[in-house]
Amino acid sequence: MGRSLYFAPRTFDLSLVQRLGKINWFMVLTIMAIAGIGFAMLYSVAGGSWDPWAKNQAIRFSFALIIMIGIALFDLKWLMALAYPAYIGALGLLILVEVMGQSGMGGQRWLDLVVFRIQPSEIMKVAVVVALAKYFHTLTPETYRYYRHLIIPIILIALPAVLVLRQPDLGTAALLALGGLSIIFLAGVRAWMFWAGIIGSLGSLPFIWRSLRDYQQDRILTFLNPDIDPLGAGYQIIQSKIALGSGGLFGKGFLQGTQSHLNFLPEMKTDFIFTVLAEEFGLVGGLVLISLYCLLLLYGFYVSVTCRSHFGRLLAGGLVFIIFLYIFINIGMVMGLLPVVGVPLPLVSYGGSAMLTIMIAYGLILSVGVQRGVNLSRQDIFS
Question: Which of 246, 275, 299, 305 is least surrounded by Cβ atoms within 10 Å, i.e. has the fewest?
Answer without folding.
Answer: 305
